[in-house]
Specification:
heterodimer; A: 379 residues; mainly alpha; two-stranded antiparallel sheet; 14 helices; 2 strands; globular; B: 723 residues; alpha+beta; Penicillin-binding protein 2a (Domain 2); Beta-lactamase; Trypsin Inhibitor V, Chain A; 3 domains; five-stranded antiparallel sheet; 25 helices; elongated
Chain lengths: 379, 723
């Protein structure tokens, strides 16, 4: 109880040391991403522009990471920060509807030529909020309560999810739901409560997938990409061709053929296809393994976190990065229906990269607090 | 420490559950990568390539087919093809009927129905409306389309374009069509040399590959240049082929035969100089798709190379083989007499009749084409060495096996082994029945007799010349001994008698040349009824008999009216032979002709000396050689016997005049003062049997100078050394 409320008396037991391995993996993936974005955008009109843009975002992201790494993560447990972030998110998510539509969706806000997706920030905000909120509720001993814990959390999540759904951006909405479910589960909310969401998910799924023509088309084309290769299945088919033609060794860095306008979104959502084509099974599997490594270091930070807030925060951030990465790969490999979500660290796209690196920065800070001690050693 | 971990306990493991689930997910991704990148790699690589390579084929010009002197029989020229995309036309909702009418008018086709049908085709985006367009036609079609489209917003004509492609052209049309063959719409040989030499002629098509992005913009280009097809130099002599076709066609039409074939072969080299069949066809006209069987038959029948693809029962002409077999085995001599019985012979109850009877010399039996004589000889062979021996002889003449000529669908003919014969088969085979031969085989067999017993493989391709003008292949005909030189000479002498005194005596006497050959008048077997019906008059032989050069065979199929080989086929043989010999620069070898010619030469010289042309006239009349008058400067031959090399006749005669002293062959010349060699030469020329005594100059002679002499007279000349 005492420690939950304040951590000022907390001592650092081990030698303070942030996770160098995690940092190395993150920085490595970022630079790999810069190279791949440059390579994958070769078919685009302004490949150099993509390179410069990605480099700028990477630099900004790394700065953010470095700053957050040194910022005591307990600062996020302040209600002002939590609610401030939430309000900012809501404002920005509403603001997107006042900006120009891109590709038929309101996902972007833009100031001084710099544009970003507030939905990326929303993921981070949700994780911070839930970590704080669930720690609070547990401290009050009402974690098991449906009305006091699950319902308010759902409302907060629901506000953001509804706004993102409205953009529309089903992929990020799904990611929000996934993070929510995982954090609830890990925080110790009874599973029976979580199961109550199943009808909601089914109903939502029905409304937003089956009732919306193009989403249903995507599902169908995912199940059977050859049905209409020039139409709805086109992107999936081209993605599979890219991956499959890579073989073991790949065509060589920069040698992708599919990026030459065959594969839409080659430098963003489908960059993993280009990686697989150019670097083959060896390169693609290496990327997967590096993400698994990040997963391990993230869970390690989570495991060693000195308190519940750090534990939940680390888990949420790790889940956000890894689940999103695996989901993206699954889309590329036709293991999951197409959802527009980027591959963390690697895909072109500023806000995603910055938010991912911010998440790594927080994780690194949590890892700094870690102690080599068994978590379950009580009583 | 007041720290309590109670709350953390029990939920401290849940993050591991999340970790495990994510690791399982990762494994699924790795398995999927393995599946796509290793197991299905080839499939996706092919898909990737097929969608990004654009291939433009570069046609390789097909090689030409030329005659032995380089005259073109077949070559490929670039031509325009009018191509339509019916899908696009339909999409434009153009009035198809009006469009068909427009094309019909522009292409000068009276009936637009066919065009309409093609324009209405579904399921294709590529219809060739007309190939081999004349250059003017291209502009006409373009203009008609433009005019139609002008001011039209809907229903415009679209999907019309012209493709340039090489198209096979046969500039000589029907000429040598069975040798050359033809190609189909894809420029692939379907018959003749076009088919057998397809791989040489075709060359290798090249292609340009463009590697493109998804928008079809090329960013890389690879080219494999086309390699031209090789040129085929045939053994055919186009001029001769033309003459042979003209002669054969005349005979074919006049006799109203169903078909006719003739082959001319250089019997020393096996080179086929001419090969003709009627009916024939124009290879420029591609066979049209026909519906009923009869229509197909009518379309394709003229395209058969009967001389090579069909066999028939040769009949009497085959007696040559029987006689040669008996002579070769030493069972009979040409002067021996054989018993032709009373004009009929009975074999196990089967009676074969003959038009001659009694004891005849073998030569006469051949000349008169005695059935019984031939059967008697065959029986002699069989009795001594078995029936198989006869089959062996037949096979050694090249029957029963493909000659291997470079023409498609050659039939080996039909020669049954003796164990498959009936008891009476020996009587049939001896006279050319129960046996199937092709006209080409027959020609080659005649060549054996003229070529000192050697069978030479007939062939029609002389050289294959690559695009770089290097000779890739040269003809290497097989040569093998069929019969001994002696037998060949003996049979040749008999065949000469066929023409001099036998079944062809009225029809094959060549002007100025000797010839050898054999008639045949086989009856055809109707395959449906298994009964004999119609005749196939045949004449096969070689010329000149004294120094054989060419083997010739002529066969007519079911002439109306006259049907004897010696009557119908022999004159064609004669015309062909005369053309051949005169144009081939062969010196006349017939004795009387030579003598008269020598006389003419002598008189010409006299006239030159005294300027008395009346003398020449007198000699001409006195010689009683009407043919002399027909000899023009162009087609007479230099008496020296050397092939004429384009020199005008008159000067050749003067230049080649043999001796300074002219002589009349009917009076004894004055030999006094001449050398032994000179006298011997003169005697040979006068056909005197010389009895020369001593050495040096001639001093005495008998008969005395000026006395009348006859060929074959004996003359005695004495010589003495000069003091």
């Amino acid at each position: 109880m005492i420690e939950q409320a304040t951590h000022k008396g907390l001592e650092k037991i081990d030698q303070i040391r942030w996770d160098l391995w995690l940092a190395a993996a993150a920085v490595g993936l970022v630079f790999f991403g810069v190279v791949m974005v440059y390579s994958a955008s070769a078919g685009a009109r302004d490949a150099g522009g993509f390179l410069i843009g990605q480099l700028r975002w990477a630099a900004l992201g790394l700065v953010v990471m470095a700053v957050l790494m040194r910022l005591d993560y307990h600062i996020y447990a302040r209600p002002t920060i939590v609610y401030g972030l939430f309000l900012l998110c809501v404002v920005l998510l509403v603001a997107v509807f006042f900006f120009e539509e891109r590709n038929g969706a309101h996902r972007w806000i833009s100031f001084w030529g710099i544009s970003g997706q507030p939905s990326e920030l929303a993921k981070l905000t949700l994780i911070i909020f839930l970590s704080w909120f669930l720690t609070q509720r547990q401290g009050q001993g009402v974690l098991d309560s449906f009305t006091e814990t699950l319902l308010p959390a759902t409302v907060i999540m629901g506000v953001m999810a509804a706004l993102i759904m409205k953009e529309p951006d089903l992929g990020t909405t799904a990611m929000l739901g996934l993070i929510f479910a995982v954090m609830m589960f890990v925080a110790g909310v009874p599973v029976r409560h979580l199961l109550k969401f199943i009808p909601v998910v089914i109903a939502g799924g029905y409304l937003f997938i089956f009732r919306v023509g193009w989403r249903w088309d995507r599902i169908v084309s995912f199940m059977n990409p050859d049905l209409d290769p020039e139409g709805k299945g086109y992107q999936l088919k081209q993605s599979l061709i890219a991956v499959g033609s890579g073989g073991v060794h790949g065509l060589g860095l920069g040698q992708s053929r599919q990026k030459l306008n065959f594969l839409p979104e080659a430098q963003s959502d489908f960059i993993f296809a280009v990686v697989s084509e150019e670097l083959g099974m060896i390169g693609a599997a290496t990327v997967v393994i590096v993400f698994a490594f990040v997963l391990w270091r993230g869970l390690r930070a989570c495991h060693r976190a000195p308190d519940r807030f750090g534990y939940l925060l680390a888990l949420g951030l790790t889940t956000m990065i890894i689940a999103q990465a695996f989901f993206n790969m699954s889309v590329v490999l036709s293991l999951a229906p197409t959802k527009g979500i980027p591959l963390p660290f690697i895909s072109a796209g500023g806000s995603s990269l910055v938010v991912t690196l911010a998440a790594v920065g927080i994780l690194l800070n949590i890892s700094e607090w870690g102690r080599a001690r068994p978590r379950v050693n009580v009583e | 420490m007041a720290r309590t971990r109670k709350k953390e306990a029990g939920l401290g493991r849940r993050h591991l559950v999340v970790g495990v689930i994510l690791v399982v997910w990762m494994c699924a991704i790795l398995v999927r990568l393995y599946h796509l990148q290793i197991l299905e790699h080839d499939k996706y690589r092919q898909r990737a390539e097929s969608q990004r390579y654009k291939e433009f084929r570069l046609a390789a010009p097909r090689g030409a087919i030329v005659d032995r002197n380089g005259a073109i029989l077949a070559h490929s020229v670039i031509s325009n093809t009018l191509v339509i995309d019916p899908e696009l036309l339909r999409k434009q909702e153009a009035d198809i009927k009006a469009v068909a009418g427009l094309f019909a008018a522009a292409l000068d086709e009276p009936d637009p129905a066919d065009i309409l049908a093609r324009l209405s085709r579904t399921g294709t985006r590529y219809v060739r409306l007309r190939r081999r367009l004349e250059p003017g036609r291209v502009a006409a079609v373009k203009e008609a389309v433009e005019q139609y489209n002008r001011g039209r917003r809907e229903g415009r004509i679209a999907g019309v374009h012209f493709e340039q492609e090489p198209v096979r052209v046969y500039p000589n049309r029907m000429l040598a069509s069975h040798i050359v063959g033809y190609v189909d719409d894809e420029e692939e040989g379907q018959a003749g040399l076009e088919k057998t030499m397809e791989d040489r002629l075709r060359g290798e098509g090249g292609a340009v590959y463009y590697e493109t992005d998804a928008l079809g913009r090329p960013f890389d280009r690879r080219e494999s240049p086309p390699r031209d097809g090789a040129r085929i130099v045939t053994t055919i002599d186009l001029g001769l082929q033309h003459r042979v076709e003209a002669l054969l066609e005349t005979a074919w039409r006049e006799t109203r035969s169903k078909a006719a074939s003739a082959v001319v072969m250089d019997l020393k080299t096996g080179e086929v100089l001419a090969l003709a069949n009627f009916p024939t066809y124009d290879p420029n006209l591609r066979p049209r798709a026909r519906k009923t069987k009869e229509e197909i038959e009518r379309e394709l029948a003229p395209r058969r190379n009967r001389a090579v693809q069909d066999y028939y029962e040769p009949g009497s002409v085959f007696k040559v083989v029987t006689f040669a077999a008996a002579l070769e085995d030493g069972l009979v001599r040409p002067d021996d007499k054989i018993n032709c019985l009373n004009g009929r012979i009975e074999l196990y109850g089967r009676v074969i009749r003959d038009h001659v009877s009694g004891w005849l010399p073998v030569t006469q039996a051949m000349a008169k084409s005695s059935n019984v004589g031939a059967i008697q000889l065959a029986l002699k062979v069989a009795r001594k060495s078995g029936e198989d021996r006869l089959v062996e002889h037949i096979r050694s003449f090249g029957f029963g096996a493909r000659t291997g000529i470079e023409l498609p669908q050659e039939t080996p003919g039909l020669v049954l082994p003796a164990r498959r014969w009936h008891r009476t088969s020996i009587g049939s085979v001896a006279i050319g029945q129960e046996i199937g031969v092709t006209v080409l085989q027959l020609t080659a067999a005649m060549g054996v007799l003229g070529n000192r017993g050697l069978w030479v493989q007939p062939h029609i391709v002389r050289q294959v010349i690559g695009p770089d003008n290097r000779i890739i292949e040269a003809a290497q005909p097989i040569e093998r001994r069929a019969i001994s030189e002696r037998t060949a000479a003996e049979v040749s002498a008999m065949l000469e008698q066929v023409i001099v005194a036998g079944t062809a005596r009225h029809t094959v006497k060549l002007s100025g040349y000797t010839a050898a050959g054999k008639t045949g008048t086989p009856q055809k077997i109707n395959p449906a009824t298994r009964r004999y019906s119609g005749y196939m008059p045949t004449f096969a032989g070689f010329v000149p008999a004294s120094d054989p050069r060419y083997a010739i065979a002529v066969v007519l199929d079911e002439p109306v009216g006259q049907y004897y080989g010696g009557v119908v086929a022999a004159p064609v043989f004669k015309s062909i032979a005369e053309t051949l010999l005169l144009e081939g620069g062969i010196s006349p070898d017939q004795k009387e002709f030579r003598e008269t010619l020598d006389l003419l030469v002598a008189r010409l010289r006299d006239r030159d000396r005294v300027g008395d042309s009346a003398d020449l006239q007198r000699v001409d009349e006195a010689s009683g050689a009407p043919r002399l008058a027909t000899i023009s400067e162009d087609d007479a031959e230099a008496p020296a016997g050397a092939p004429m090399v384009g020199a005008p006749m008159a000067s050749a005669v003067v230049a080649a005049a043999p001796t300074p002293a002219p002589f009349d062959p009917r009076v004894m010349p004055d030999f006094r003062g001449r050398s032994v060699r000179e006298v011997a030469q003169m005697c040979t020329r006068l056909d005197l049997r010389a009895n020369l005594v001593g050495r040096g100059e001639a001093v005495r002679q008998s008969p005395a100078p000026g006395e009348p002499i006859e060929p074959g007279d004996i003359c005695r000349v004495e010589f003495q050394e000069k003091k």
